[in-house]
Amino acid sequence: MFRLNRHDLRFPPVDRASPEGLLAVGGDLRPERLLEAYRQGIFPWYNDNQPILWWSPDPRAVLFPNKLHVSRSLKRCLRPNVFTVTFDTSFQTIMEQCAEPRPQYPEGGTWITGDMLDAYTRLHELGYAHSVETWQVGRLVGGLYGVAIGGAFFAESMFTRVDDASKVALVRLVKQLQAWNFRLIDCQQFSPHVSRFGAEEIPRNDFITSLSEAIKLPDRRGRWQFDKL
User: Fold this and answer.
1) C-alpha distances in angstroms, 76 versus 26, 69, 110, 164?
2) By residue range, what is the domain housing residue 99?
3) Are residues 53 and 79 both part of a single domain?
């Protein structure tokens, strides 16, 4: 197991990851390290009782914006009178809601630790991390957050309090990323949920190749806003 040095931002090559995708342990969550990790297709995922664990799974779940699939029933929820969707108005709240217990995990537990919350809030302040909020009658009912570098968006987590609220946030995000010429959305792990939107599993080497091209595009830092329809 490769152990990171706090004073060295370098990661080992991703092909040294374990079969499960675990690549390294330790280090810290300062912005420079997080951004370096994402540029190499690496992300942190660990629990409170663990050291920082860094992952690069193979295969990788990716949604290419031009392959977005929206079901007929979900299209009805995209009408303006159903939900209001915003960018970057409640980043910390979105992360806190994503960290709340889920119905399928009533005993609690989350990988969004206090340190993770602080680290990604700092990335948000620096203009790299973004949130999408879904509102209904003035109440926050769903959303998601992630990190953007160049033409790549790294989706981290989402939550919903009303049926389809987080799905609407994702669709609006992907459509905006299409308009901004983003090349890929990293979904990290494949699941039936992301597959419904057109996400696919690709070999890690193919992901790294696509990612290396995507991050060459200019960063879109700062607070995001949706283009006017």
Assistant:
1) 46, 14, 32, 10
2) 61-214
3) no
199 Ramachandran zone, left/alpha/beta (phi>0; psi -120 to 50): beta
Mean pLDDT across the stretch 52-74?
97
CATH number at residue 10: 3.30.70.3550
Which CATH number fits the domain that encloses residue 121? 3.40.630.70
Q: What does the CA dihedral 196, 201, 206, 212 come to, rounded to 10 degrees?
A: 50
pTM greater than 0.85: yes
Q: What are phi and psi of 95, to 5 degrees?
A: -60, -40
Q: What is the pLDDT of residue 229?
A: 62
* HEC string for 106-160: CCCCCCCCHHHHHHHHHHHHCCCEEEEEEEECCEEEEEEEEEEECCEEEEEEEEE
By three-state DSSP, how is residue 7 classified? coil
